[in-house]
Amino acid sequence: MATSFSSTTPLRSIFQNLPVVPKALLSAHSSFTIKRSSTYVTLKLSGSGRHSLSKGLLTLHTRKGFVRAATIEEIEAEKASIENDVKSRMERTLDNVKTNFSSIRTGRATPSMLDKIEVEYYGSPVSLKTIAQISTPDASSLLVSPYDKSSLKAIEKAIVNSDVGMTPNNDGEVIRLSIPQLTSDRRKELTKIVSKQVEEGKVALRNIRRDALKAYEKLEKDKKLSEDNVKDLSSDLQKLTDDYIKKVDALYKQKEKELLTV
What we know:
This protein is of the alpha+beta class and 262 residues long.
């Protein structure tokens, strides 16, 4: 939105809200005349040459030449890039928390219990779910049907070496897993594990916020953002971080309820 100024408006007031404020302008005389057209405003200052603001591009004309500042479009693109990176990384952090939660059994069989298991398959570690179909015949058992029967031994070994707490039964065709009932002590132990994963998720979110703040501060240092701009962006960033922390807390409450429900 365009802003109108009168010929008596102090020069500092005109430029203080611009993304870049050349020191030469702030120290210039406040006496000036304004020449307007549809796309630019030219300010003529007493003994200071000419200063033009054209389509968001600030150009300072002096006897020694001119200095080109970043356009508003360029600055907005940098801000958008930082914001998109923040949201993308926070979403991935939330997804990671969900994945970690899904691998912790709650007494009821779900294929996601085996999501974190990797199998040594032809010399390379691969996710179990990529080389086998995992189903739940009933609420207390899992059935692992490998696409390649020769991988049965490797799958069995991977399950035994994992922390899922289940003993595989290999009949030469499929692997069956029985879900043991959780004891009270085991439920409390799993709740502590989930709580730790929640804290790790929150730390990750705060680290993302820290990285974004550093990026904004660099733009301020490069004179592309004003101090007020950075304060506003920091406030928005804190609100976004708080929102994701609330989402993590909601996931924790749901998982905790599942673990403690007998």
